[in-house]
Amino acid sequence: MLLERGTIGWFVPHIPEAEPQRLLRTTQRLSRENERLQEENERLRQKVADSEKQIADLEKRIADLERQLAGRMKDSTNSSKPPSSDGPAAARRAKPARCRGRRKPGGQPGHPGRHRELVPPEGVDQTISVLPSNCGHCGRPLPQQIEQVSTVGRVHRHQVTELPPMRAEITEYQCHKVACPHCGQGTRAELPAEVQAPFGPRLAGLVAYLTVGLRIPRRGVEQLLETALGIKISLGSTQKLVEQTSEALAATCQELEQQLPKEPVLNIDETGWRDRGERRWLWALVAASFVFFTVAAKRSSEVLIHLLGTVFAGVLCSDRFAAYFKYHKGRAQLCWTHLKRDLLGILEFARTTEAERFCRNALALTARLFRLWHRLRGGGLDRAELLKKSIPLQQRFFRLCEQHLDSADHEVRVLATALFQHCDRLFAFLEYPGVEPTNNAAERALRHAVIWRKGSFGNQSEKGEVATARLLTVARTCVMQRRNTLEFLSDSVQRHRAGQPALSLLQR
User: Fold this and answer.
1) Are 362 and 397 in contact (CB under 8 A)?
2) Residue among 394, 322, 324 nearest 365 (CA)
3) What is the pTM of this model?
4) What is the C-alpha separation between 362 and 350, in angstroms, rounded?
5) Which residue in 139, 156, 292, 432 is deepest, having the highest Cβ count within 10 Å?
């Protein structure tokens, strides 16, 4: 390296002319590399952001699918779904564990035997004496006439119940035209009003009973009448007999409808129905001694206002459907069975410890409360003691709901909020006699109708809707009152045809 003479200190080196160009090229290359890395970094950042968004979307989709799966896995045991919605593919119901022993099925030693009681002699239609043909000791022949033998000991009685040969009774009414001895003109007699129909009241009542009481389709009724009774009847005639029976029950059902607002306690529930393929709702209102059905186009509080008036003074027992909250602001009882199913459903599909703790605590309080209720039902506790012992349980239940109003679990938060807002509607059964803690009475009343719906697919006319409601009302009320449904239907048709007042189902 060359140094300049006469300078003091360090000498500036001589840089060749090609060196700045090389440094410039290096700087440009590093700049391009930096830009490329920045672009790659930005691309990776965007890719990470897209991946995070995709992961969030997938997590949301997984959560939605898990909720859908949980909803499909829910049945009548862990949700408010009715048993009719379970279907044959539903999970087998868990039965309470029992101690398995060596006991064989059937009657156990010492079990009192069950046998068919003999009908008293005055109720026997025919008596046949059976005599031995030969002596069991000496072998000689014995007389075969009861008057010629001498009997010893008591008679062994054996009864056989059999149907008589069934044949329809046909009565012909001949209306003669009688000539007047004074004017010579002929006058034909008119049929009595009660026999103008081609089929009698007992047959009309039987057709209605087979239809609504036994849920036999119209064609099945037609075949049964022809096979068992030899009555040839058309499909249209069976429908007319059902409609005539419905007309005969109009006043009876109207009396029950007018009694509804006066009842101290009513259980109410509704289920889907069909009319010519369109959506309808079948409502069931259960009082202490009767059931009332109606088919409505809506599932709203307007139906309750129409049936019970603007204000119902009694205790209304129902599930947590919004229409009942909107209509009734007075005393009410919510169904604990629905509440228990909801708690079991949340517990079964719980994803958080908080949800499990809430459900287990609520179920434990429910079990303790119902143990007190069963003691009252069994006579081991009076109502004053029941109220005193249940107050701490009510307070704990209220606090439990209050603690979970802001729960992170959506289902727990919704249920706790609903129970907190309507906590006063959970304990009416403790205070008011005649109020049950569940809505099983209304659900049992609807069960028969739901099974009928599965075979009939609803109605095909407004007149059919009215007939359905009236026949169900009378049939289920007769079952509740332990009355003969067939006799009531037949007598109602007979009185209607004769112009007599309708029978009543109100127990005075």
Assistant:
1) yes
2) 394
3) 0.76
4) 14
5) 292
User: Are 436 and 370 contacting, i.e. CB atoms less than 8 angstroms apart?
Assistant: no
Neighbours of 455 (CB within 10 A): 10
**Mean local confidence (pLDDT), 427-446:** 90
Using the CB atoms, write b or e for 250-278: b if 16+ within 10 Å: eebbeebbeebeebebbbbbbbebbbeee
- For 241, the token pair is 């007999």
The predicted pLDDT at position 258 comes to 94
As beta bridge partners, residue 280 has 273
Write b or e for each residue in 350-373: b if 16 or more Cβ atoms lie within 10 A of its Cβ, otherwise e. Answer: beeebbeebbebbeebbeebeebb
The DSSP letter of residue 413 is H
Closest by Cα among 402, 423, 424 to 413: 402
Is 10 part of a structural domain of the chain? no
* DSSP H or E segment with residue 353: helix 353-377
484 within some domain: no
Q: Are 222 and 238 in contact (CB under 8 A)?
A: yes
**Residue among 184, 247, 256, 269 nearest 467 (CA):** 247
Measured torsion, CA atoms of residues 350, 355, 357, 363, in degrees rounded to the nearest 10: -80
| Residue 182 placed within a domain | no
User: What would the pLDDT profile of 133-188 be if each residue is shown by its tens digit?
Assistant: 888 888 888 888 888 888 888 888 898 888 888 888 888 888 888 888 888 888 88
CA angle 25, 31, 32 (to 5 degrees): 90
HEC secondary structure over 356-371: HHHHHHHHHHHHHHHH
State which residues form the domain around 342.
336-431
Q: Residue 447 corresponds to which tokens in the numbers above?
A: 């069960």
The residue assigned the tokens 């332990």 is 482
Among residues 307, 324, 318, 312, which one has the least CA distance to residue 267? 318
Q: Which of 278, 330, 286, 340 is nearest to 309 (CA)?
A: 330
The count of domains in the chain is 1
Token pair 């009734």 in the structure block, residue: 328
Distance between CA atoms of residues 337 and 444, nearest Å: 13
495 touches 248 (CB < 8 A): yes
Q: Tell whether 361 is covered by a domain.
A: yes
- Specify whether the CB–CB gap between 331 and 428 falls below 8 A: yes
